[in-house]
Design goal:
By secondary structure, the protein is of the alpha+beta class. 32% of the residues lie in helices and 24% in strands. It is elongated, with a radius of gyration of 43 Å.
């Protein structure tokens, strides 16, 4: 035990003066020797223990925060949609680009003929945790036009998001955000694709429901094998590459001759 003492003055009644006390000094405070005599090694041990406790607490906060937001910070490309248009791939891409320009959305045409829009900031606020830096919420669109024959294509639009909660992703789909497919159809109605068949020297036939090019060839020329010539004149790749009520041009030399 370590004690702090102070010698108290002693009043001498005979001489009427103070003299130094000969008795035991007065004890002011006492401390355990162990606490007052910590070695450098013990001090380092205590410091290490404190650091470990602090880091463990921070790790727990980080794990909890990471569990809460891990599906926000990762890029998400699973949400997609598609739309079929009665146009070849090139025309479908041009219509898509015109629709994007009309909405003021910047984009880049990729070497593989896909379209990627530039990142746009989302109109939401996501929480930020202590010492956790999250990516600002944003989104972009990745668009492809897949040919489904010579006269129709399928437009596929995937929305890629960052830091947007899952329950809000549906609102960032292209059809919901700015009605992309509706605008494409409206543009197509204003500027229909130019016909690929000649304007004269033949007759236009309208395909009946459930009728392919072979059946039309049989009906128009009397020979189903003439479908290849008809397909070549109309830019069609196969007998099934047609849709109901599609106009197909048949040259006069192939037409079935009626009775004299």
């Amino acid at each position: 035990m370590f004690c702090i003492t102070r010698r108290m003055p002693h009043f001498n009644r005979l001489t009427l003066s103070f003299a130094e006390a000969r008795l035991a000094p007065r004890i002011l405070a006492c401390f355990p020797v162990r606490l007052m005599a910590l070695s450098p090694k013990s001090a380092l041990s205590w410091l290490f223990a404190v650091i470990v406790c602090v880091l463990s607490a921070l790790a727990g906060c980080f794990v909890g925060r990471q569990h809460q937001t891990e599906h926000w910070t990762a890029a998400d490309t699973a949400l997609g949609e598609e739309h079929e248009v009665p146009y070849p791939q090139k025309a479908a891409l041009e219509l898509t680009e015109d629709a994007l320009r009309g909405d003021g959305i910047l984009f880049e045409r990729q070497p593989d003929d896909s379209i990627i829009t530039l990142w746009r900031n989302a109109d939401i606020n996501t929480p930020t945790g202590w010492l956790i830096l999250t990516t600002p919420p944003r989104y972009r669109y990745e668009i492809q036009a897949v040919p489904e024959g010579s006269h129709k294509s399928r437009i596929i639009v995937n929305v890629r998001t960052e830091s947007i909660p899952d329950d809000l992703l549906n609102g960032y789909k292209a059809s919901n955000r700015f009605a992309l497919f509706k605008e494409i159809d409206e543009l197509a109605a204003k500027s229909p694709a130019a016909p690929s068949a000649p304007a004269s020297g033949g007759v236009n036939f309208t395909l009946l429901p459930n009728e392919d090019l072979k059946a039309l060839s049989k009906r128009a020329t009397g020979d189903a094998n003439n479908w290849q010539e008809i397909a070549k004149d109309n830019g069609i790749t196969s007998a099934a590459d047609v849709t109901p009520f599609q106009n197909v041009w048949v040259r006069n030399s192939l037409l079935k001759q009626g009775p004299p």
